[in-house]
Amino acid sequence: MTSTTVTPAAPAVPRQPAPGINTGRVADLIGQLLVELGEDPRREGLTETPKRVAAWWSDFLAPASAPAVTSFTESHLAGQLVVVGGMSVWSLCEHHMIPMNLQVTAGYLAEGEVVGLSKFGRVARHFAGRLQVQERYTREIAEHLAGVIGREDVAVAVRGLHLCMSMRGVRMEEARTTTVHAGGRFVTDPVLSQQFLTVAAGQRRVC
Ligand SMILES: [Zn+2]
What we know:
The longest helix has 16 residues. The protein has two domains: 55 residues, GTP Cyclohydrolase I, Chain A, domain 1, CATH 1.10.286; 137 residues, 2-Layer Sandwich (GTP Cyclohydrolase I, domain 2). It has seven helices and six strands; from the N terminus they run E-H-H-E-E-H-E-H-E-H-E-H-H. It has a six-stranded mixed sheet with strand order 1-6-5-3-2-4. The chain is α/β, with parallel strands linked by helices. The chain binds zinc ion. It holds the Pfam family GTP_cyclohydroI.
């Protein structure tokens, strides 16, 4: 089962970076949750669990500021399609607080300069480090990259494995969700759009 959502480019929506969390308070709350779930947080195996979970939350929410993206001048380049794929990140579905694996492919048109390739992975990780929905995640990456290159000629495709669909609810382990956010010439030029989608499909690994 696969669903595909194609969203047109939309104005950037400013989001606040995640504030630092009080890990001691979170650990207390996790301990209370264990009690409410019928567990004894003092038993062997659980004594350090609240601290570990709190530390994980702190780490998960750590990327508070968007990474700086480096561009390099390549004056001979005009309209070259650049696609970076194979980026796999974990995030948390905000509806169930259950993990989702997101495979990201991002493309843009290089016009006189290129974006440092490793930065794509940093951007993909940055926007995954918060409670998310795949549709918004896809748009946030596209809008961030459009801001970096100063044009709307960006397309982002994300293929998501949502454990909230696999391990609860309808329990469909094979379900995958595909989202595409395209802007600029990726919307107006159907050949370019098709090129991107073909390359993106080829770069996805099976999961
Ligand atoms: Zn969910």
